[in-house]
Specification:
2 copies of one chain form a homodimer.
Chain A (H helix, E strand, L loop, with lengths): L3 E5 L3 H13 L4 E6 L11 H6 L21 E5 L1 E7 L4 E6 L3 E4 L2 E4 L3 E3 L12 E2 L4 H13 L2 E5 L3 H12 L3 E5 L12 H13 L3 E3 L2 E7 L6 E6 L5 E5 L2 E4 L3 E3 L2 H5 L10 E2 L11 E3 L4 E4 L6 E3 L3 H15 L13 E5 L2 E7 L2 H6 L4 E9 L10 E9 L5 E8 L3 H13 L4 H5 L15 H12 L3
Parallel strand pairs in A: 1-2, 1-7, 2-3, 7-19, 9-16, 10-11, 10-16, 11-12, 18-20
Antiparallel strand pairs in A: 4-5, 5-6, 8-17, 13-14, 14-15, 20-21, 22-23, 23-26, 24-25, 25-26
Helix pairs in contact in A: 1-7
């Protein structure tokens, strides 16, 4: 029987795990630890504190520290777990509070840290990550005074930050090492549409470009970059620099007590979100689970995944029985009013996961041609060449791309094939969508190729 | 072997059937007949020619008459099929062209006509339906000069027409016999939200009110209505009247040759869209097929259903093999920027189809609370009390209601239950949607009730 649950980390995962454990079990003692002085806040909302689409930093705080008392959860903020003696089910903590705690169940919700790229002089002042509320606070101040920003990394966080600074009137350059931005999310041709759109709106984007060095004394003067194709080296003036080149799961403590770390560098978990150690769980950005289609190991790194895994971990730690179905990996964002949406495999991911695919690719419109105001939308759907089953999809357009993506994700979760997506009875009204939704048209193209 | 296909009716159904038959079979002779002088146009787009959201009447014409030649389809417009001798597989036609035609396969795509309600003096001038392009042309002219419009019937067409006239500056009153508008689509509480919204925007709506008589000499002066609750009789001044109280399948010719008419008043069809007579098909508003969940008879009456049934009928008539999966009945519209969306069963329909249901009902927001600009959205989902399976859903909100509906429709088509919808990995980004989509939250509420 579980009497004491300890949760390390109070991000979306840790906080959700704690609340779900409490919801399931009114008696169990729950203690949560956070190195940061804050409790749960929305990490994904951070870029929008810069642009003002999130008005106050406090708005991001989803669970004010004072609220934990009311659900009888002992929140130790500004406090770091420094040592775990798992044999004796005891941990030590330090910081605002100091002491030792006995636990029966332990949940790692330690999140991830920025993976710093091999760039010279990264340790200057005014070189930031965008991972914490404190990061965002400093960056919001930079947006007030600085003129030139360089963002290293054109992934989701990098692009969202770039848009935010641009909207605040800064001159912004994104430096992306790979041939295109957002390649963890979309195929190159889709990424190209997004880049063109962002450039039209005024963003400078250098792709296939390596950031090599940050010049300046204490603070940045410029970023030296090298075009990876023609090897041309240029200097991009910068008042400050944001490094957003991806993250790495924080697994030190888990590793130390013998928790197995998986090939994705996250803590390996089963469908109950339990690690190889009985009653030790992991969830959120520090955890690894299975990719939904192939059941191969995959890190989540998404807020949706974090809260869903955390719910399962929290309930199980509290003595319940819940399972996590695996990670499809639906990802969306909006940049200068363009929605970019992706789920399941991109072409590149399908290759890496060794799934041969057939594609349905179409350019359509969000509304019927006769109705004023429809927007272009590009849709790509991927199907397993052997089974015809939907394994991924991407949409880019000025409206209704993200919501359309949801149909594909639930389709993947329920194993639909190209014929079934073609049979989808989409909603239709002139002001909303045409009789054959672009999703259905893309399935039709693939269905023919698959001879279904 | 089929050498000659005759198709009666060139609306969305007839035109789609013809084109799909041709696509499948390059050799077969195809003749299509339309009593109207036009060929395929979007009937659902008609209200928007009044408001100007469809710019030109011609924009609605999806298949200009001159295009039929290029696909070797003989289009006889302004021509009515007057007689069928099915024993000898011959039909006679009259109008712009006159003659006799031999057929091997026959497709009824005769559509529906307005069902005139029992109102006195409905046959006045300036009392219109809104069913044909000619209706729309006349009504667009009324919008230019008239001041007061009364719309009898607060269903989809009535409400869309009312919005259109209101946007053109007219004083508009909707008279609805039932306690609420749109009850064929949503529950009363959802209808109430829509009515309140439309009233706030300036529309006058009288519910639970019977239109009794249209006064005036040749043209309307007023509509006499009676409140069905307090029996109060009032007179609503009207320059013209639109009657939109539903439609009835046109089945006279089919009936005449012995085609079976179903309990929904539509032509009864199997999954190949074939009637009880070999090689005689029906599709679109004149046809009856099965409701998806219960497999009980149901009329379609929707553009999406019409084109999907027509595709199946066209391919089968041309010698192919296609099946129609049944009617879920996804319906959407937009009134004064509010999206109203419904799929599967409403509470009332579930009762009529004898499905005991459990409800998940929530008021949520389209975006996370911390992000500026999210809109209220109300979501209701219904589940079979015995199996837990999703059987219907409704959404009302100022954005993303219709696109969210699509998830429910494909969910119904693939038999998902409340637990599966709760496990749905919706997309998440601050600018798009919160980590737990309102759909998922509604499933959670039902899941608990269902003890899943």
């Amino acid at each position: 029987m579980v009497n004491n649950i300890a949760i390390i980390g109070v991000g979306a995962a840790g906080a959700t795990a704690a609340l779900q454990a409490r919801k399931f079990n009114r008696e169990v003692a729950i203690t949560i630890f956070n190195t940061e002085p804050y409790s749960q806040y929305s990490r994904c909302g951070l870029p929008y504190t810069i642009s003002g689409k999130v008005r106050e930093f406090d708005d991001l705080v989803l669970m004010p520290p004072s609220n934990w008392d009311s659900v009888k959860i002992d929140a130790k903020l500004n406090t770091t777990v420094t040592e775990i003696d798992h044999k004796n089910r005891t941990l030590k903590y330090n910081g605002a509070e100091e002491g030792e705690l006995k636990y029966d169940a332990l949940i790692f919700a330690t999140g991830a840290r920025n993976a710093n790229p091999p760039i010279k002089d990264l340790d200057k002042e005014r070189v930031y990550g965008l991972r914490t509320l404190d990061d965002a606070k400093v960056l919001a101040k930079e947006a007030e005074n600085a003129k030139k920003a360089v963002i290293i990394g054109g992934g989701l966080v990098g692009m969202e930050a770039a848009e935010a600074f641009y909207e605040r009137g800064l001159d912004v350059t994104v430096v992306e090492f790979l041939p295109h931005c957002l390649l963890a999310m979309v195929d190159p041709d889709m990424a190209k549409i997004v880049e063109d759109h962002c450039r039209e709106h005024g963003l400078k984007i250098l792709t296939n470009t390596a950031a090599q060095e940050i010049t300046g004394d204490k603070t940045p003067k410029a970023v030296i970059v090298k075009n990876r194709e023609n090897e041309e080296v240029t200097e991009i003036p910068a008042d400050f620099v944001v490094v957003a080149t991806g993250v790495r799961a924080i697994t030190d403590l888990a590793d130390y007590i013998g928790v197995e770390i998986g090939p994705s560098h996250g803590i390996k978990t089963d469908e109950r979100m339990m690690t190889n150690l009985e009653n030790v769980y992991a969830c959120g950005d520090c955890a690894e689970n299975v990719e939904f289609i192939t059941r191969k190991p995959m890190a989540g790194g998404l807020g949706t995944i974090a809260v869903r895994q955390a719910r399962v971990a929290g309930i199980n730690a509290a003595g319940g029985e819940a399972t996590f179905p695996g990670i499809v990996g639906a990802k969306v964002t909006k940049l200068f009013d363009m929605e970019i949406a992706s789920t399941g495999f991109t072409a590149d991911m399908a290759k890496r996961f060794e799934i041969p695919v057939v594609k349905g690719s179409i350019k359509g419109s969000t509304k019927p041609p006769y109705y004023v105001g429809g927007k272009d939308i590009k849709v790509k759907t991927y199907y397993n060449k052997e089974t015809g089953k939907l394994v991924g999809g991407q949409l880019v357009g000025l409206e209704d791309a993200a919501m359309r993506l949801n149909v594909l994700t639930i389709g993947i979760q329920h194993g639909i094939d190209a014929a079934a997506l073609f049979d989808f009875e989409n909603c239709y009204a002139p002001a909303i969508c045409d009789t054959w939704d672009p999703l259905v048209t893309s399935a039709d193209a693939a269905r023919r190729r698959l001879k279904m």
